[in-house]
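Predict both folds.
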Amino acid sequence: MSQLFYLRDSRSNVGSTCMFWADRGGYTSNLDLAEVFTLEEAQRLFKIRHTDVPLCKELVDELATVRVDHQYLVDDGTKTGCDEYVICINGEWDGNDVYWLSQFGFRDINYNTATIFSYQDALDIQSLGVGIKTTIYAKPDIDAIARRTFQAANVNERRMITAAGIRKPKLPRTRQTTGKTRGNCPHCGCITWGFNPYENYSCAEQYSERNGLSFVVSDTCEELKASKARRKAA
């Protein structure tokens, strides 16, 4: 298996498509513009930031799909000297990527499955669409902007990460917290805990909040202790 990796930014996707570190900085969904790392480089960067996940380049390339970003669509219609056309389904996207009319009239976001028509055949097909709006593009124009992408649903952590030689960094353990802030009782100095971080709770205020009371049971720590003793004796 290849020891080369793409570095995926796992914090977010564009639609179902993964974003990768781009070769000249930033991020990209285009695999042909993604930076390629050695095993050592990918492991080091993964350790620094756990959301930058190395994926085996060889396995990603095997599952890549060719898609077209609607932001780069060119002028539609007939073109001089062109005899191959494809039909785009209007109003449907996966992230920024458009759907195409594929074989047997199905929609498919994978541009490689798009059916190729002559311009007249494309017009005839377009006229048959009932309630479906489409746009006809010259295939060479779309070929020029189509790109290889990889979808998040195809990530296989065992094969693409661990089996490819990457060791997952140990995540720091986080201690559970009650949300309370430590303070000192202003009357007796004992340690108290309360949800309001801007106040030092008295022993009585701590007792009231802990027991879900809407009032403070006593004014002083001595009264609180006496009250507790009476309830215990009863």
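Second protein follows, with its predicted structure tokens after the sequence.
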Amino acid sequence: MLTTDSLKRLWIFSFDRTLTAAGACYTKARLHRVTRQFLEELAALPGHRVAVLSSRPLDDLVSRVPIEGIYLGGSCGTEWHIPGGESMTLSGKPKDMLMETRDALLPTLREVADLPGVELEDRRWSAALHTQEANTKARQTLFARLAAVLKGWRVALYRNTTMVEIQFLPEITMAFGAQALCRFLGYRGDVVCAGSDENDATALRWALNQGGTALSLGRDPLVPGARPVVDVRSLARHVRDLAGIDEHHRTRMAGRRLCNAA
């Protein structure tokens, strides 16, 4: 069994727009073949632990990351699937506070989202308003409506190029999930976080504050000190360089996978 002392590095990746193909619809998002390959390589390295963390519900995330040996965190780390089949879920006061805010806001958000090309997704701890199919006017109207509706509410709002997400409890961020995993593992060592949006930026900032590494998808880093990574292939190169996975390691791991499959 791997002990905390023997754990060399913890890797935490967000899912959407970090590990998936660019421009993929949220309902069809899957691991890019390049990211799936390096996740399998990392998971096979002794002393390394790998996690995929998302604001998507856990059951949705599990169906999209079919790799053994990886920690999967749904709803920003309020629920986890642990390698071996174990799971854990946040309960108590935070959950009660969630339900109060969620029940009050969700019907209004459904009305706000009634715009051409806008689609609302209920993620339980958050509501995602997808705008990939919306035109500029619809997006501008959506933002104006949200500003009016959310005024006075203690929530967090995160934007990216194809989605606006309202986190019903502002404390429940990607940084929250990263810290929850470290507490579960009893780990205080080297952490690498990779992400692509404003919510992910909370985890990147946290990793840097711990003396770790932050990989930011896109030409401009999400937070100062993060390493900008243009696309998934560039991400793969950075990850393999940090992990010390060279062509010899890759060939050996690929051979091992083929043997196991046989």
